[in-house]
Amino acid sequence: MNRHQQVVIEYLQAEIGVLKEQLGRRPRFNDDQRRRLAVKGKPVGRKDLLRLASIVTPDTLLAWHRRLIAKKYDTSQKRKSGRPLTAVGLRELILRMARDNRTWGYTRIRGALQNLGHEIGRGTIARVLQEAGEDPAPERQKRTTWKEFLRAHWEVLAAADFFCVEVWTALGLVRYHLFFVIRLATREVHIAGIVPEPNGPWMKQVARNLTDASAGFLNGYRYLLHDRASLFSQDFRMILKVAGIESVRLPVRSPNLNAFAERFVRSRESERQWSDFWLPGGWPFQQACWWVRQVSSTATIDECSRCPFGRLVL
Question: Which of 33, 123, 198, 263 is most buried by a 10 A CB count?
Answer without folding.
Answer: 198
